[in-house]
Amino acid sequence: MLKKLIPSVVYEEIPSVLLENLSKAVIDFFEKTCGPASATDFTVTDCRSWTKIVGIISFVGDLTWSIVLVLPEFTAEDTSKKFAGFEVPFDSEDMGDVIGEMTNIIAGMVCGYLEKDCIKAQLSLPTVARGKDFEHIVPETFISERLYFQNNGNDFWVKVFMAKSSQD
User: Fold this and answer.
1) How does the average pLDDT of the chain come out, rounded?
2) What pLDDT sits at residue 2?
3) Would you say 90 and 76 are in contact if contact means Cβ atoms under 8 Å apart?
4) Is 148 within a domain?
5) Does any domain span residue 2?
6) pLDDT band at 15 (very low <50, low <70, confident <90, very high)
7) HSE (side-chain half, CA atoms, 13 Å) at 7
8) What is the three-state SS of the chain?
9) In Å, how far from its chain's centre is CA 62?
10) Between the ranges 12-16, 106-110, 155-159, where is the mean pLDDT highest?
C-alpha cells in the first residue's frame, strides 16, 4: 500500500550531486593518503583481461546506489603501500583488507559530503573481489557511470550505479 503513495522517480542519469561528491571524496582521500590525485580523461572500454581488485559498497537513504572502486594490480600495489605504510602483496588477504578499508573510508567521506547537501545516506559493509577476466555487470534497469582518476601516474576508476526508478 505504501508503494502506491510514494511516487516513482525515474532517473535517466546519475544525479550530478552524487558524481560531484564522489569525485571530491576520491580525490581528497587519495591526496591525503597516497599523494597527488586528479580526475582524468583516461578511459577503459574493455578491462576484463586485466588483473585487478575491486571494492564494492552500497548506499541507502534518500537515494539507493552503489560504487565499485577498481584498481589494476600495479595501482593497487602502489597505493596500498602508501596507505598502509608497508608492501602489501597483491594476492594476500591483507590486500583485500586494505582495499576494503580504502573503499569504506571513501564511502564515509561521500556520506559526509552528501549530508552537507541535505542528502541522507548510510553505507553497507564493503565487499572485495580480486581476479582476472571478470567484469561487473549492471542490469538494464540500472544506470551507471565511470569516473576515471590518476594517483602518482597510476590509473584507476570508480563505477557508480543506481536503479533507473526509485521503485526498482
Assistant:
1) 88
2) 46
3) yes
4) yes
5) no
6) very high
7) 3
8) CHHHHCCCCECCCCCHHHHHHHHHHHHHHHHHHCCCEEECCCCCCCCCCCCEEEEEEEEEECCCEEEEEEEEHHHHHHHHHHHHCCCCCCCCHHHHHHHHHHHHHHHHHHHHHHHHCCCCEEECCCEEEEECCCCCCCCCCEEEEEEEEEECCEEEEEEEEEECECCC
9) 18
10) 106-110
Q: Model confidence over 75-88: pLDDT tens digits?
A: 999 999 999 999 99
Domain presence at residue 42:
no
Query: Which range of residues forms the domain containing residue 30?
Result: 17-35+49-136+144-163
Grid cell in block for residue 142: 540500472
- Counting the structural domains of the chain, the total is 1
